[in-house]
Amino acid sequence: MACDVAKPERSEFAEKLLHWLTTTNHKEIGILYTLTGLIFFVVAGAAALLIRAQLATPEGTVVSADVFNSLFTLHGLTMVFLAGMPIISGFANYLVPLQIGAKDLPFPRINALSFWLIPTGGIILFSGLLTGRGPDMGWTLYAPYSSGAGVGLARPAADLALLGLLFLGASSIATSINFLTMILRMRAPTMGLRMPLFTWSVLVTVFLLLLAMPVLTAGLAMLYLDLTLHTGFFNPALGGDPVLWQHLFWFFGHPEVYILILPSFGIVSEVIPVFSRRPIFGYWAMAGAIASIGLISYIVWVHHMFTTSVPQSLKTIMMLTTYLVGVPTGIKIFNWLATLWNGKLHFKTPMLFALGLVSMFTIGGITGIFLASIPLDIPLQDTYFVVAHFHYVLFGGTILGFFAGLYFWFPKMTGRMYHEGLGKLHFALTLIGFNMTFWPMHELGMAGMPRRIATYSADTGWGPLNLVATVGAFMLGLAQLVMMANFLRSRKHGRPAGSNPWGASGLEWTVSSPPPPHNFDGVPVVTEAPGESHHKSPGGGAFMRRLLGK
Amino acid sequence: MQAVSTQVVNDLFWLFFWPAVGVAVLVFVWMGYAMVKFRARPGQPDPKDAPVAGQIPAHRGSRKVEVTWTVIPTVIVLFLAAVSIGPLNFLWNPPPGEHLTVRVEAYQWAWDFVYPEGFKTLNELRVPMGQPVVLDVRSRDVIHAFYVPDFALKTDAVPGQPTVMWFNATKTGTYRAQCAEYCGLAHARMLATVVVMEPAAFEQWRAERARGVA
What we know:
The complex is a heterodimer. By secondary structure, chain A is mainly α. Chain A has helices at 2-22, 26-55, 65-100, 108-126, 157-185, 197-229, 242-276, 283-296, 312-340, 349-372, 374-380, 384-414, 420-446, 463-493, 540-548; one strand at 527-528. Chain B has helices spanning 4-37, 63-92, 199-213, and strands at 55-56, 100-107, 110-114, 120-122, 124-128, 132-139, 144-148, 153-157, 163-168, 173-179, 191-197. In chain B, helix 1 packs antiparallel against helix 2. Chains A and B meet through helix 3, helix 7, helix 8, helix 9 and helix 10 of A and helix 1, strand 1, helix 2, strand 8 and strand 10 of B.
């Protein structure tokens, strides 16, 4: 009977679907996270292209002001919470257990819950669009506009966005506890603190998440209550304080910036030594720099508020602390460059993206030094100069790091090599498109163009540079299709990779590609280079061991 | 320069600019040189300490070098922080004495400028050249920001929390002012002009407007 033939076929698909819906395996969850992140990356990228299309010429008519406002809101929220963080979770899920010799996370079901909260929160966040108006308060959700004061706030899109974010926050908090427990308790016995630098970066990242995310969650809950029950926490007409929202938001928001970038620093710290064929220069300095960036990130948040009514004393203190971030950041850049020295450099795609990060992030770091100075920040705050700065950090840093990592571990995850030529093409188009998009924004900001404006008049003179930025943005968008085509093709048709195609050092390269479900037969053993003993390592190593035990 | 503040900020900007270019050149030249000099050559053997799967990489580094590139950047950033303090004191504190104080009231999506005599103008701030002018910036609904790019100045208009901004315009003319804090639907159209006038012409205008009120 025809039914009997059709049924088992369907059930095979259903079984596969059921498997992916219920999996608790860290590698499969890692893949789910990464794919979810990439899908939202495309969505947020499409929003960015619409923004650029609207701003390409003065008095643009591509979208209305209303739609424009919700486009930049959704672009920011999506890139940060639904693309950036899930992709980081994807890398961390897939790699950290393999790198430290664990079989899975300590709480695999909580891990699955963490993942499924992401698409759930994402759908809720976007569901306001069904009412015809998306959320329009900017990703920073500044009160009291976001809490209903004034006119024009898109309701219920704002409520739904806040609810969606609460789901995403819950996911991050659960994930951070899961990873913290794993990294502190489940490392291979012989590893000690000589963890791969990617694992170090994840350790510091989850510390940041664990302390920062609850503050955002509390703030979001207060904002939601303000909107729905008129509690007035942030509304001065009801006795509240709108600047309090900014304190809560940036107490989370600044560590968040490092949450987004530290894992990419970790990725690059893995990639550069492998393609230089030398160990990383200054391992403990690198681990220490990651940790101190994490610590300092908690005491700089007022640098987002230099033009507000915050007292001058607090602004001045946070200007000084902000400058301190430059020191460990510089240490990282110099150590990456020193790693190249006397090496044997292979310019494969992951290495190109890693060096892309080092150079582009340097530019973002330098403009950060300008913005840290209050007298310079006053004219530049909330202009396109700031937009340029944080895109050099978050695209030039975070996303180029993601690309380096995707190409580097693609063979491990799929068992097949990507196409090197297409990879290099992706790199070239990305680097050119990126700089064309964001470099002119420095100048636009210095010429006084504020961010988040839906249009501008021709007499401002901002037209030509905006046009360049828009052309660059579309090039950048097209470049990403090359990457996707490459991965889709290579997943099935790439050359078999073998367990260690790059000659890398981590434990993940000792197992097959893709690794077996349980990762390791027995407890893996990390060995030491001939004549080395990390238990006797001097200086920073001894300090870190005392700090963390072991 | 259009105002004293423009000059102050501009001077500071160039003080930052050259060290910034220096650091960028250092990083790019260092990287470019290493990429050429240490590129893999055909038949070249791997260095002795090349990575081995499952093996902790050998120690590589130098404490002297790490200390150097910790101390020098620390000195540079502390220098840049220190030179920011002077301009900061200037920008934040109007000079002593009596000055024209205009109350700036922001609301979705326009600006009212209220003069001491009680009259107000809409979206046009008129001020005398060569005298300090103090702005008492407020908001009636959500957060806005009063931004005059040509004066290199900006301050948020926070409901319930007045902020102060002052300037001394040094050239007559009409300057653009714009809301710089996103405030909803017509944020992009929340514009104003700052008209800097000869002091005599300004006083005449002011007296006329004041009479109109009285």
